[in-house]
Structure formats: structure tokens, C-alpha cells
Specification:
Length: 132
């Protein structure tokens, strides 16, 4: 089950800036940062539980195309209710997610331990493109 974060109430904080892309007529550079809020619990002390997390900043316009991008995500709030037995929290991969043309990211997240939780992921997205 994919976790989709795309409405203002699903973010602890969000920031963005936009300006014309230097040397690229008609293109804009957008920079998004913040923390996505959700609750994802591990299932076992013996293996990782994986899930897909999609972060779509609400301020992102729809783009007709992207010419450049850079992004990252990292765990920013974790919790373990009891003893941490072989516990772990991870953002294993991050990729650009541009459906339906908005600037976002798709992350593979993971938690290990029956009472381990991942509560927030910090993100940083920079795109250059042509907004519609």
C-alpha cells in the first residue's frame, strides 16, 4: 500500500522558492524542502518491512516537462515503543515522481522491529522545468 503525502495537513513544515531559470527562457527553477508526516510501523525483529512513500508538495505547479532535477530524503523522526531489538529505520531509494506532472519524489522506506515506527521523512527537491 503506497503512502501518499500531498495535502498541507500531512506536512510538519514545508518551504518553497521559485524563480526564472538562468539561461533557460520559459523555464523556472523550483526548490521544495520540508518534513512529511505519517505513521509506518515495523512488523518483525527478523526482517524489514518496506513500503513506497510518495511526497508531492502542494505548492508544485504542473509542469509540461522537466530539464533538470535533484532530490533527497532521509528519516527525520523515529520511535521505538519498547526495547530496540534489531531495530532499524531507512529511506533506501529516492526517485523523481512527476505524476500528474507535479514535482515530487517516490521513496522506498523501511522499518525493522515490531514496535519501531517511522514518523517523518525530510525531503529536498529541486527541479527546472516548464510550468503549464
Amino acid at each position: 500500500m503506497t503512502i501518499l503525502i500531498d495535502t498541507p495537513g500531512e506536512f510538519a513544515n514545508r518551504n518553497w522558492v521559485r524563480f526564472p531559470a538562468p539561461g533557460s527562457p520559459g523555464q523556472e527553477l523550483w526548490h521544495f524542502t520540508g518534513n512529511a508526516v505519517f505513521s509506518f510501523r515495523g512488523e518483525s525483529e527478523d526482517h524489514w518491512r518496506y513500503e513506497e512513500l510518495i511526497i508531492l508538495p502542494p505548492e508544485s505547479p504542473v509542469f509540461s516537462r522537466f530539464s533538470q532535477w535533484a532530490y533527497m530524503a532521509a528519516p527525520s523522526a523515529i520511535y521505538n515503543q519498547g526495547s530496540a531489538n534489531n531495530a532499524g529505520w531507512a529511506v533506501d531509494s529516492v526517485n523523481l515522481y512527476a505524476n500528474p506532472g507535479r514535482a515530487g519524489i517516490r521513496c522506498s522506506i523501511a522499518v525493522r522491529d515490531t514496535d519501531g515506527y517511522l514518523y517523518r521523512v525530510a525531503y529536498h527537491i529541486v527541479v527546472v522545468g516548464v510550468p503549464t
